[in-house]
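user: Kindly work through both lines:
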Amino acid sequence: MNPTQGFAIQIIGERINPGFKSVKALFDNEDLPGIQALAVKQAEAGAAFQNVNIGARALTDPAFMGQVIRSIQEVVRTPLSFDFPSKNVQELCLSSYSLARANGQLPIVNSITEHRWDLMDLYGRFQFKVILMASERVEDGVAKGNKTADQIYGTARRAALRLKNDYGMPLDHIFIDMSISAIIADTQGLNRSTLDAIKAIGADPELKGVHMMGGLSNIGQQLPPKAADGSDLKNCLENAFLTLAVPLGFDYVLGTPWRGYAPLPEEHHVLKTYRDFLEQTGSNALRAVRKFYRA
């Protein structure tokens, strides 16, 4: 059963990634049946796409990267997302991908940024969708991180319309990655900026059709495992963010398909505390964080 049933989001499965120790072991041992089993598990749990990341080995052992892609496509029909910033690696991934085995569904190139636009040189020879990073912009030829809602929204709008107007890419082939910060270190209102930017993008008629997504795994980083009510704090924080973001147009999560993403009721302790946290900055934000695990 899809754990997101009744909640208007879809999942890009994140588990084929050496950041997970058990998966790193699969790659180290070249355990292709194990990788296939993981792909099947994600597909059966309702993943709309599966992100494929084999780490730096994609550069040093491109043949293995291609082998992983073909092996996954032998057992699932889920379209894939290729997660590596190198044009050469992305070209290999796209060459290895079978449209037929994905029932004609295009893969995703993860990810495009304004200072990493060379990946779009592949468009035309290959057809694909893109994950577009809204967290960084180019200013006077220099890459800079975005911190305000206007900066995030402006970057997303500029880049998405460039993809549409210069490359003819349909807007619904664009997934804007709204970077979600760990609250433990968020003294500058970055979570608030992200939510405000999601609202601005969702309300922009020229961006109608784009998807908004993000990885939620950082939001509860370095916090205790339990909230004040004894619940899984990290999962509740992820769901608190989604409770606020999904109505604004956020519709995809890079996450674990069986994680259990669902809206929180208004009276839920973590949602109420997260709302309070969003209004704070500086040391007040740090004090607000303590409320998540202090009854």
Q: What stands out?
A: The longest helix spans residues 149-167.
